[in-house]
Amino acid sequence: MSEARATIYTVARAAGVSAQTVSRVLNGTGQVSARTRAAVLAAIEAQGYRPNAVGRSLRASRTPMIGMLVADVGNPFYARLHRAIERRLAGSGYSLMLMNCDDDARIEHRQLELLRSYRPTGLVIVPSVGSSLTDARLQEFGHVVSVSRVLGGVHVPAVVTDEADAVAAAASELVAYGHTGIAVILGPREASTTRAREQGFRTAVDSHPQARGLVRYTDGTRQGAQEAAEALLRAHPEVTGVIGFNALVTEGIVSALLTAGRRCPEDVSVIGFTDAGWMTLHRPAISVIDQPVEEMGALAGRLLLDMAAGQSVDPGPHVVPSTLVRRGSVAPPSMTKERRA
Amino acid sequence: MSEARATIYTVARAAGVSAQTVSRVLNGTGQVSARTRAAVLAAIEAQGYRPNAVGRSLRASRTPMIGMLVADVGNPFYARLHRAIERRLAGSGYSLMLMNCDDDARIEHRQLELLRSYRPTGLVIVPSVGSSLTDARLQEFGHVVSVSRVLGGVHVPAVVTDEADAVAAAASELVAYGHTGIAVILGPREASTTRAREQGFRTAVDSHPQARGLVRYTDGTRQGAQEAAEALLRAHPEVTGVIGFNALVTEGIVSALLTAGRRCPEDVSVIGFTDAGWMTLHRPAISVIDQPVEEMGALAGRLLLDMAAGQSVDPGPHVVPSTLVRRGSVAPPSMTKERRA
DNA sequence: CTGAAAGCGCTTACAG
DNA sequence: CTGAAAGCGCTTACAG
């Protein structure tokens, strides 16, 4: 009843046992007789006692918390990833702490420093562009899993999709439809995802002698992508098929088409990367490389939980394949001439 | 150099001072001579010492952490809100811990219990539907601000938009365009936002004798809204203007229109609530009640910071007005007949 | 099955 | 301007 600061000691006193025994009941460790347990539980109930995670963490030298650092929480990809990881962690006793770094290595450093001060159990990281994270540094966070972007020279399990193959399939799809001038609007040049997707694109283009491929780098935002796409379409009217790096970039491409007065798919075919709700609403519906975000998040969560439980895990990279979802935004380039005729 | 557990004590020893003085240097509290400060800083540098937030929190009986509990992190509104609050908190020393509750009072309770165990400094809450949160309970979280949804019988500063007026303006806009059968697809019946928006809708409809208003409740998801909109359009062909509760519901309405073969705006005019990137891409571009999410988040962050600094703040509710953004999804209903003719 | 003691890393009074 | 002591709430060895 006296809510005035219930601790393990006040509970112990009321139950006529030691603090140690209360701790045992709380954590289900060791052996406690049924009678003692009942007395402790009754005292906990009577006092409205609730554990203090801070005391526990200090003693244990670690906090049951998983940090999650991403480049941009405004990108729906990361929101979905966060949700998927949180779902996987639910009930495990670990909480997820989401942090943003605006894809800035300096902010990344600062955020990780803050996280580290809590002595977390693990970290899910989508490294920022230009990240200078090292193995030694990451070790400070206990168990680490990287998602989507991988970090060079660093040995942590990675969860990714089949970047290169997925983009190669999309590029080949455009070629199969008869496009010879195709382009991909990528993200930041230094991002591993950009490099992998570019490589897949080039591989596909190179395997089709009739095709010519163009590559553009952006900051991965809608605005940046729109500008890049507008410039590209202006300078290269022969481009009739464009692949977008992510959902935001795809928005930028579609927006650029609108601005430039180019119709989709009659004038330009479009394939996005990472599905988004609006893509089925758009006319034509946007064909997309559907990234299995939920599976990726669930896998990352599981790996972390396994590591935290002391199990050794496959360092991967764990590749969860994407699927090309065909909707209405890809058509033969010849349609242009037919319609114009 | 000896990275083997640098603490305030190892630093103190190396600098030839007491732990207390190291603490003073770390926190900038009290007076420390320049020489002493330099010696401490040198020792910190040499040992690679970094503070342990857990020890600090335990002693201080509170953690420099702000919890943020929302109904659905998958809703872009909350992602934007999170980002805005994090921005406002950046550099303040407080970290933001985002938690999801799937709009379930039970999960809300569990998540808050977890948060509370960290002894946070504050909480930003979008109460779940059916939340049984009380003043007493919320007091356990130190400083609390509610955003968007308000909680009955609870006295915490609230940050909201002008729900009723905004929806009333949208409904009047439809009537002004000549619509007489108008509808609003709302969220959960129990949510304060639903009630306020419904009230605004009814007020507007009642002030126009020629207008008839229909109201539907949903779970606020795209799927739920799509089903509700399909049923509504089927049962009430006289409805030619629809207002959506949020961006997801608006997706559902647009999707329902597509499924039902009703054109926008020729057959049905649409006004959304809360802007989203796809709305300017859609043809027609979707007119929307643009909710000032960033301002709301910044304000919530500031209120929390002020409260944490011991200042008393205006309990509000703090109303940040929305703006009706006219795009292409509203047209006179007469267009229907003209086109059909 | 249970307990007394120590200590996790830090800051808060209290002295000087 | 600086320090010795105590204690935040808990769990970890160590005993019995």
UniProtKB/TrEMBL annotation, chains A, B:
The keyword Transcription applies. InterPro entries: HTH_LacI (IPR000843), Lambda_DNA-bd_dom_sf (IPR010982), Peripla_BP/Lac1_sug-bd_dom (IPR001761), Peripla_BP_I (IPR028082). Pfam families: LacI, Peripla_BP_1. It comes from the Bacteria. GO terms for molecular function: DNA binding. Transmembrane segments: none annotated. Keywords: DNA-binding, Transcription, Transcription regulation. Residues 6-60 form the HTH lacI-type domain. This is LacI family DNA-binding transcriptional regulator. The lineage of its organism: Bacteria, Bacillati, Actinomycetota, Actinomycetes, Streptosporangiales.
